[in-house]
Amino acid sequence: MGHVAELAGVSVRTLHHYDEIRLVRPSARTAAGYRAYSAGDVERLREVLAYRRLGFGLREVAELVGDPSTDTVAHLRRLRGLLLERRDRADAMVAAIDRELKARAKGLKVTPEEQLEMLGARLYDAIGSAYTATRRTEPRIAAQIWDALGDAQTVLNVGAGTGSYEPADRDVTAVEPSAVMRGQRPADAAPCVAAAAESLPFGDQSFDVAMAVSTVHHWGDPIAGLREMRRVAHRVVVLTFDTDEPGWQDRFWLTRDYLPEFAAVLAGFPSLAGMVGAIGARAEPVPIPWNCADGLFEAYWRRPAAYLEDHVRRAMSVWTRVGPEAEQRAVRSLSDDLDSGRWAERNSDLANLDTADLGLRLLVA
Question: InterPro entries from the xrefs (predicted)?
């Protein structure tokens, strides 16, 4: 036992405790009566310690490693996803600190929200607390997504967030890396696993269909995540964004006239053709209703004053990514144009439209 404790970097007392609570029980004894760990015991200990070092409580760890449907490979994939999330969190903290240092160097006022942004670290942790106010299922978009699910009975919802667009008439399993988002899921929502899209802790072809709604642009490696969805499911349905069309930045007046930084936000995003090719999909346009119930970035294309509301912007990842300077400038300019009538004059063609194609695409494979 002492040798195992030394290799694992824990005390013998810790191993005794794990044995007493039946978390990791050595399967054999030496001739002298000492506990002896088999290869399988060491494997389980490795999983326990890895989850513990990621901050899971002993009860949570016991449930995770005791799940009979999850094998070693699944645990490794889950652990990899959680570690990627932690890496992303650290990267986001550095980026938030850099933004604040830049703002302070210019003598700009840093709001309490901006000061606390670095503690949120991950993008969804920074914006997640506002999601329940404006982000909800839009029935017309949901109908198109659910129609694409076809006759699937088992559904994996990747990057599930708070649970919007999860079909109530299917057997749904959710995957969401952000603890803030998981914490806001309704009590009757589908069970949710803490993992990242790039490392899904499920076996090949475990689900009839894997779906992902307005989340791919937040993944560290979108193509890897899409391929993982393809691996674990027979079919794939993804709501994403098209950046292939020439001049795509000008489709939406907000990015064309007020927020040119939006193009940089998606600079590293894979092409629509690349995503289609990765999973062998077809792409369908997803029109956005003028009175869209889901407060996604493009939702208020015919209701421009909504973008002046802080609680509306806080539930949109774009504003966090472009930074406070660009956000404040865009809001001031839009407010001035709404007051002067310039916005209405420039966008008069939108007044009689019921829907708009602003680049949302549904990939069906």
Answer: DNA-bd_dom_put_sf, MerR-type_HTH_dom, MerR_fam, Methyltransf_11, SAM-dependent_MTases_sf
Distance of CA 108 to the CA centre of its chain: 31
**pLDDT tens readout for residues 183-202:** 778 888 999 998 889 989 99
For residue 305, give both structure tokens: 């004053």
Angstrom CA distances, 138 to 129, 165, 248, stand at 19, 8, 24
Higher pLDDT, 31 or 258: 258
- Give CA–CA dist 225/199, Å, rounded: 7
Query: 295 exposed, middle or buried (CB, 10 Å; 0-12, 13-18, 19+)?
Result: buried
The pLDDT of residue 88 is 61
Average pLDDT, the chain: 86
pLDDT for residue 178: 80
* 262 phi and psi angles, rounded to 5 deg: -55, -35
- The number of beta carbons lying within 10 Å of the beta carbon of residue 82 is 21
Q: Name the more confident of 167 and 60.
A: 167
Give me 310's structure tokens. Answer: 């802080």
Q: Which residues contact 6 (CB under 8 A, 6 or more apart)?
A: none
Q: How far apart are CA 48 and CA 63, in angstroms?
A: 10
Condensed to tens digits (0 to 9), the pLDDT of residues 352-365 reads 999 999 999 999 99
